[in-house]
Predict the 3D structure of the following.
Amino acid sequence: MKIAYSRIVFVKLSVLGTAVLIAVLGISGYFGSGSMASAASSGPSASHTNAPGEDNCTACHTSYPVNSGEGSVAIGGVPHNYLPNKPVTITVTTADPGPSASIFGFQLTAIDSQGRKAGTFSLPVQNPAKTQIINGIVGGNQREYVEHTIDGLFTTGVFGSNTWTFTWTAPPRMVGKIDFHASGNGANGDGTNSGDYIYTTTQPSLAGSAIANFDGDTKSEFSVYRPSTGVWYSLNSSDGGFVATQFGLNGDIIVPGDYDGDGKTDNAVYRPSTGVWYLLQSSAGFAATAFGTAGDIPAQGDYDGDGKTDIAVYRPSTGVWYLLQSSAGFQAIQFGLSEDKPVPGDYDADGKTDIAVFRPSTGVWYELRSSVGFAAFLFGLPEDKPAEGDYDGDGQTDIAVYRPSTGAWYELNSTTGFYATVFGLPTDIPSPGDFDGDGKSDIGVFRPSNGNWFVLRSSDQTVLYGTFGTNGDVPVPSGYIAR
């Protein structure tokens, strides 16, 4: 009886869906890949996660609209910010409290902003196997999928849900924002494709693009620091909540970053008069560290690639960088001249912040990339203000400047090349950030005369406008770039 029941379940969750697709696409077209045909013998066919260009399981299980039941599918373990080559444990849980749901299935994929496979999956050793990996092609891009097997449909002593666990290893280089897409099936086990509820979800993992991100979502937020009172103000993009935090004194330099690696921006200041860094970490609490001297320029970044912002300063008088890395410890590196402005960033997409400077007198950028070595680029004029960021969303910091005299932005994007646009006034403060959550830096300015923000969203080229702040405030996104 057990074998017969398993075969009925297989028909319900897999074969019927495959049959529908054969009718639409034709036998030869759909089964053009031997691996796909083989995979369909024990689980759903590829490309049913509801990712861009894909369908979901309602293609076969048509009784109810997607996400219309009482249940859900959830993806756990996805890091806020991934690190190259780092493996993480992923869990997928399909749940449905309804009385009809008795067996559960899922399919998941991870893709970059171009719809390409991002990272690789590996499965735990199980006997019998509960999960399997299959491949598919969507829009000319190969995608990899993890899904249930026949034995993975059943739970042991658990009612109303099923959970599967496996490993995802990040790509060897940063590729920008990665989205995990999953579809789950809460089935009634009656041997047909009717009466089942289908659920979908998406979970992002960023390449550090969401700066000034105090609520831990995927977006940068309108946020300012008021030197006169030492108060930080932020407007959460996730729920519109207003937050005010007293942390700092007049004369402090803001040094925002994710110092505890929890995916949220921490309030932090550098006190030039004493060379002390003060951190108010969202998960690790207060910390104070003496690191620097009068005249040093703070240059925080993740220099050791562990997912945490490191304390760092550039000393113009000697051209030396001093790093206090959270996992790799102290390091001093000679790189720059007294006139240079520090412009640290991940210019080689290896997950580590690189030492770099902009030389105003010549308009040259000098980079000491952690994986590929020295590079120099002529890009800018003496009046320009550096505004580096990942404007094309490939996980690699791009050279960019803001020209106050004309309000023009100039970018040298690592993937999409040169770009220029006029966006701002001479008195505006350049404040780029990922305000729309698409994994790309958006051009943005803060107008200190009236507290207005203007953002050119990369996702749709529309202008995001808001008033948040007052004259004299320092926009938090500007604390990530040279000043």
About this structure: Residues 2-25 form the longest helix (24 residues). The mean pLDDT is 91. The CA atoms of residues 275 and 292 lie 4 Å apart.
